[in-house]
Amino acid sequence: MYSEVIDVIQHPHAINEAVITRLLLLPEVTLSHGGVFTGKPTTRLHCSQDYILKAQRDLNFSSQKLAFAWATKKHEKEQACKLYVPEKTWFTQQTEIGWTVASISPRLQTIHSLIEQETSLEAKLRYLAGITSLYLAYGATHHERLDEGLSNFGIDKHGHMYYIDDDFYAWDHLLSFANMIALWIRLFSSSWLDSRASYMLGSMIKKQLNLHFSEHAGVDYPDVLIEHLKQQFFNAQSKICMLSMCSALTPQPEDTTTVIQPLKKQMLVSDEQNITPWFCEKEPIAVISDIHANLPALEVVLDDIKSQGIKRIVCLGDIVGYGPHPSECIQRLQEENIFTIRGNHDYMVGSGKDFSHGSQSSLYVAKWTIQVISGREKKWLKTLPLQLRNKEVMLVHGAPRDPTFFNAYVYERTAEPNLQWMNEQMLPICFHGHSHLQGMYVLQAGNVFLQKELETYKLHQHTASLICPGAVGQPRNGIPGAEYAIYYPEQKEVMFKRLEYDIAQVIADMKKFEFPEQLSTRLEQGF
How far is CA 85 from CA 75, 149, 150, in A? Predict the structure, then answer.
């Protein structure tokens, strides 16, 4: 049993207590999946033609004071985020087991019902773009995400869109947002969301991403969204729509009047399907990472790979940063037609962003690199793919479960959750960089083990293997040298290698360009 209204949080647009009282006398509304009203089983709902009142049965307080304080805090947050219809009003009630809070709002027409009724394509897209705008604006400002369901957004009689649900969730860098967009594609591609409309919606989403996240360092949000969409399930028809949307999200040349030719032949993002079979065939694959503009180290590694007759090479990112030879290393990768994943330093230099964190020495070199490499080289770095993934293997710079792809590290504390994620995804092998620590973490019989000796390891016996080939240009395991790995797909084996190179030459070039001395010391010591 619930009492009458005890106390209403007053504000300029507050709904009259008499309206609340009348609504409480109406029968509770039954919630159902796919029905007119959906929600949690714990939600108590009363509604009229003009208003909706809802409360959580499991939200109870020991006193009216505590309930009112909670409701006041909730009201203040909602006022600050500007997501809700201004008339939304919170109030307290007494129950048989304590005190509870509830809210009342004008009844809005939900987006899922509007899309069903609407015949205009432009109007349907406008509704979805409106959800995108609310969702991304709030996420960028508050680092929280909204509940993605279409029924959680509504339009008032003036045509303004608002958030209806009361819940907020941890921001996950567009992972849940991508799930929402994929659901829209699957839901509507059989009726009105064709390839053209998908491109239009993708353009609207890209505009909102650039508007709200242009200053957010360390994440390339349009490309992150593309990668998350590529991992979703689509049938043949909806996949065409997804690809059309991704085409709209893909960065376009800043100067459309000039055709930018590649410096050398290079492996393009669109050639990913040509790389995928490598991991199911017999020929060995050399895996390199974290070159960090160290040309002598890269040359030694490439010579060693060539001496073994290995023709397939993949790079896990961070071609630039820390070292004095950025253009030379970019050109060598292009000359050798090496498939390359984007690293965090590549994004920093290529985009000119992400100067909000990092050591002073790394930021010094990043800014220096931006000044010395060409515009075409920056574009190449910025447009490298974020990952490669198929049923056999994943290539990524950071960590496999990182939604931003190149920011998270794999080390002792993060290895287990990443391996468990791989197990859940039925992904047996992941090659990653970023940590600069040669070796691998494996999941075997539910336990995590670290392997880091220089030898060949068989991967058959492991549920999941998380492999770092080491750093070509800047190892951090205390042993100077140039590191890489060789993967044998047929045998499911990996071999780690470490080579000596002319460190003195690199240090001399660092001094010539007045690099911080700390970087030279780290190179000599292998830290």
Answer: 12, 18, 17
C-alpha–C-alpha distance, residues 256 and 278, integer Å: 35
Calculate the CA dihedral of residues 11, 12, 13, 19 and round it to 10 degrees: 70
Can you give the pLDDT at residue 182? 98
DSSP state of 253: P
Structure tokens at 130: 């409106």
- Picking from 467, 481, 382, the residue whose alpha carbon sits closest to that of residue 419 is 467
> Phi, psi (5° rounding) for residue 47?
-150, 155
pLDDT digit string (tens) for 127-177? Answer: 999 999 999 999 999 999 999 999 999 999 999 999 999 889 999 999 999
Overall number of domains in the chain: 3
DSSP-based three-state secondary structure for 438: coil
Contact 169, 176 (CB under 8 A): yes
Q: Say how many Å lie between the first and final Cα of the chain, rounded.
A: 67
Q: Do 305 and 412 reside in the same domain of the chain? A: yes
The span from the CA of 108 to the CA of 86, in Å, is: 12
Q: Is residue 55 part of a domain?
A: yes
| CATH number for the domain harbouring residue 510 | 3.60.21.10
User: In this structure, are strands 285-288 and 312-315 parallel, antiparallel, or unpaired?
Assistant: parallel
Among left, alpha and beta (phi > 0; psi -120 to 50; other), residue 173 is: left
Q: Specify whether the CB–CB gap between 198 and 245 falls below 8 A.
A: yes
Range of the domain at 206: 109-249
Judge if 299 and 381 occupy the same domain. yes
Task: Map tokens 């909204």 to a residue.
Answer: 146
